[in-house]
């Protein structure tokens, strides 16, 4: 099964892939810098873990791009367009699990009243408070992702790519993580022991919220739900548009619109049953497997267009 994607969309997908490679490069440098400046700060550890998790979306996007256009075969007759949906679910699950763990860790530190200490280090013969190095590392961790995130977002909207949009959203919001971490470090410097755990809690809560929202969107798609918006669980306007127009074109038929990766599949089925009923169709299968057939439908490409007298498909 092949799809004719406009050259403009292909160009944007190629540009998005290049940006994801750049994201991986900059994130690796950020992870290294954050690791060596982390010390005993809970906020720094949480920010470092978030930066490490930020590698998931670009890697999954590049993998999904590699597999989504593979041709259909006997084992996968509808192709591999949903590999992006699966990757999106995996990324969302990882975010949710890690966000929950980090929130628990921060809450435990607050309840147990753990007092983090930030010592001095000697650099070129000078005693320097490690907190200043942490602040510098956090500042560095903000700049590349925020710039890349703002560059990716319009590409994600144009290509309807949920993994790319999630990645762009996380990148663009990295300034919040950085500022929370900096506030925690400065708080420790002023003697507020709880500031570090509070900053870690804010960062982990943001991770958990993003993960849960993305899981809802991913699960809806994998359960053949109607296409959703990129940034929410609301149904995409394309569903109403397609359904209205197709019912006008094929009166007496029901319209089913579902999402498959970045594509949309529209089925037109007779509202009062097709030429072959479910019962008759089940007789064509073995008795022990007949129960698995739940619905019969025709894809739009299989129906004659009454106005143009040719075959037409919408995806």
TrEMBL record:
<protein>
    <submittedName>
        <fullName>Cobalt transporter</fullName>
    </submittedName>
</protein>
<dbReference type="InterPro" id="IPR058533">
    <property type="entry name" value="Cation_efflux_TM"/>
</dbReference>
<feature type="transmembrane region" description="Helical">
    <location>
        <begin position="46"/>
        <end position="64"/>
    </location>
</feature>
<dbReference type="GO" id="GO:0016020">
    <property type="term" value="C:membrane"/>
</dbReference>
<feature type="transmembrane region" description="Helical">
    <location>
        <begin position="129"/>
        <end position="148"/>
    </location>
</feature>
<keyword id="KW-0813">Transport</keyword>
<dbReference type="Pfam" id="PF01545">
    <property type="entry name" value="Cation_efflux"/>
</dbReference>
<keyword id="KW-0812">Transmembrane</keyword>
<keyword id="KW-1133">Transmembrane helix</keyword>
<feature type="domain" description="Cation efflux protein transmembrane">
    <location>
        <begin position="26"/>
        <end position="223"/>
    </location>
</feature>
<dbReference type="InterPro" id="IPR050291">
    <property type="entry name" value="CDF_Transporter"/>
</dbReference>
<dbReference type="GO" id="GO:0008324">
    <property type="term" value="F:monoatomic cation transmembrane transporter activity"/>
</dbReference>
<keyword id="KW-0472">Membrane</keyword>
<dbReference type="InterPro" id="IPR027469">
    <property type="entry name" value="Cation_efflux_TMD_sf"/>
</dbReference>
<feature type="transmembrane region" description="Helical">
    <location>
        <begin position="21"/>
        <end position="40"/>
    </location>
</feature>
<feature type="transmembrane region" description="Helical">
    <location>
        <begin position="85"/>
        <end position="104"/>
    </location>
</feature>
